């Protein structure tokens, strides 16, 4: 039987290139890079005052003449939109722990060790340069790796780079994200309201119990997670993004219909669909055809774990909307800074060296120690040279580093110094990492 081609519509000429770009491996890094350039342009243009002032506008909710949850746009982006980012990070973490690279203890040891080294050494370097005062608070900034940028640079090298390197860097960055979440939860919180925190944890308990009882409705978890868990954490003093990670860990990972059963059912549906007289004369389907397609759709949803369904649906939204908005709100810094002001503290130096030197020493050093003492083997295709290249890519801190900067400092001058350190180290680390790995593949 000849299969006819899919019908094309004029709108496809617009939609298809966008869909292709979204599926492009490097697209996330490219979009983030463009957002950073736009933010830097606006911050150093005649529109700079309007750009900075825009994010200071406040909005919230009013009831009976009283204002509730009234925060600036900048605050809503960092605590609201970034909670969605952290929710997806939590989903990725749980997936990797349940059935990914972190599920096999022996295979997971190497990237876990590399990530721990890549967090400890940068923090030590920063603290040695900034031992006291408010500048001391920024020790968490150089601990983070930006997974989108780092993988974006790695994917630029094409398919000649061994898959093991991509898997290793992904696992390292995911463990690194978990470390950043713990640092934020334990060290970057304001005064804690025990009542609000208890309410939030109670909602988390409800979500966990619902998971164990077999509740698979994404809407149920969204309502309880947002209006219960997240709102309570927002009011508790513990950073609201932590609530997003906790919520992610309550999302079910099992399926109602196993793969073998699903295949049998789908084949039966297709046979029934083919046995129905085709309705080619009109562009609509028969009731029986609609019923079969509904059953296929329902069973397909039942065969996909809710966690993966959510992660797959939300990933483009986070990559192409939330992260670019975050970059626009946080990456804009005026480059009209004199050297004396830039180095009035060691913040820029601590962040820059922490990322560029600390990440490489920590990632490479801890990995080699684990291999030397035969605790974990090198992945196939990895050697010391491309491990060094991965260490340089891990120095791309960007999104997480900027986020922790917003939590660590209230002093605008300190924030600018930290951002200069982040940008400098990330750019140098990305370029050097690309050069080392590109020479290694030849």
Structural summary, described in words:
The protein has 2 domains: 271 residues, Na+/H+ antiporter like domain (Na+/H+ antiporter like fold, Up-down Bundle); 45 residues. Helix content is 70%, strand content 3%. A two-stranded antiparallel ribbon has the order 1-2. A hairpin with a 2-residue loop joins strand 1 and strand 2. Helix 4 runs parallel beside helix 10, helix 16 packs antiparallel against helix 18 and helix 17 runs antiparallel to helix 18.
Q: Can you describe this structure in just a few lines?
A:
By secondary structure, this protein is mostly helical.
Unreliable sequence segments: none
Strand content bin: under 5%
Order of helices and strands: HHHEEHHHHHHHHHHHHHHH
Would you tell me which CATH topology of the largest domain applies? Na+/H+ antiporter like fold
Quaternary state reads: single chain
Largest sheet: 2 strands, antiparallel
N- to C-terminal distance? 47 Å
CATH class of the largest domain: Mainly Alpha
Number of H- or I-type helical stretches: 18
CATH architecture of the largest domain: Up-down Bundle
- Total number of strands: 2
- CATH superfamily (homologous) name of the largest domain: Na+/H+ antiporter like domain
Provide the domain count. 2
- Spatial ordering of strands, largest sheet: 1-2
Task: Give the radius of gyration.
Answer: 24 Å
Class per helix and strand makeup = mainly alpha
* Nearest-integer average pLDDT: 85
Shape: globular
Helix content: over 70%
């Amino acid at each position: 039987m000849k299969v006819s081609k899919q019908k094309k519509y004029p709108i496809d000429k617009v939609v298809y290139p966008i869909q292709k770009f979204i599926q492009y491996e490097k697209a996330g890094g490219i979009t983030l890079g463009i957002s950073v350039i736009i933010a830097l342009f606006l911050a150093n243009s005649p529109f700079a005052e309007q750009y900075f002032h825009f994010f200071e506008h406040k909005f919230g909710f009013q009831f009976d003449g009283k204002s509730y949850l009234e925060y600036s746009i900048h605050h809503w982006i960092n605590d609201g939109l970034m909670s969605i980012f952290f929710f997806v990070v939590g989903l990725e973490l749980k997936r990797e722990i349940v059935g990914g690279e972190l599920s096999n203890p022996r295979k997971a040891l190497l990237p876990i060790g590399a990530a721990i080294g890549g967090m400890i050494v940068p923090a030590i370097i920063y603290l040695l340069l900034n031992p006291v005062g408010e500048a001391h608070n920024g020790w968490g900034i150089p601990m983070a790796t930006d997974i989108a940028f780092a993988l974006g640079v790695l994917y630029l090298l094409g398919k000649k780079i061994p898959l093991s390197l991509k898997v290793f860097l992904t696992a390292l960055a995911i463990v690194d994200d978990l470390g950043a979440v713990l640092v934020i939860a334990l060290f970057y919180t304001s005064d804690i309201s025990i009542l609000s925190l208890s309410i939030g944890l109670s909602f988390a308990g409800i979500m966990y119990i619902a998971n164990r009882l077999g509740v698979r409705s994404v809407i149920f978890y969204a309502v309880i997670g947002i209006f219960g868990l997240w709102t309570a954490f927002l009011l508790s003093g513990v950073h609201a993004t932590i609530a997003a990670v906790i919520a992610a860990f309550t999302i079910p990972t099992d399926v109602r219909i196993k793969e073998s059963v699903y295949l049998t059912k789908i084949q039966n549906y297709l046979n029934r669909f083919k046995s129905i007289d085709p309705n080619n004369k009109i562009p609509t389907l028969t009731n029986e055809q609609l019923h079969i397609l509904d059953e296929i759709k329902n069973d397909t949803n039942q065969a996909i774990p809710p966690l993966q369904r959510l992660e797959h649906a939300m990933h483009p939204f986070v990559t192409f909307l939330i992260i670019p908005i975050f970059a626009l709100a946080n990456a804009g810094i005026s480059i009209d800074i004199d050297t004396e002001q830039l180095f009035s503290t060691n913040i820029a130096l601590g962040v820059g060296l922490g990322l560029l030197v600390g990440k490489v020493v920590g990632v490479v050093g801890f990995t080699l120690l684990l291999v030397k003492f035969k605790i974990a083997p090198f992945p196939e295709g990895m050697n010391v040279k491309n491990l060094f290249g991965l260490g340089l890519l891990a120095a791309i801190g960007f999104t997480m580093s900027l986020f922790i900067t917003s939590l660590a400092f209230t002093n605008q001058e300190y924030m600018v110094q930290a951002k200069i350190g982040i940008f400098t180290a990330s750019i140098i680390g990305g370029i050097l990492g690309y050069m080392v790995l590109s020479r290694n593949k030849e």
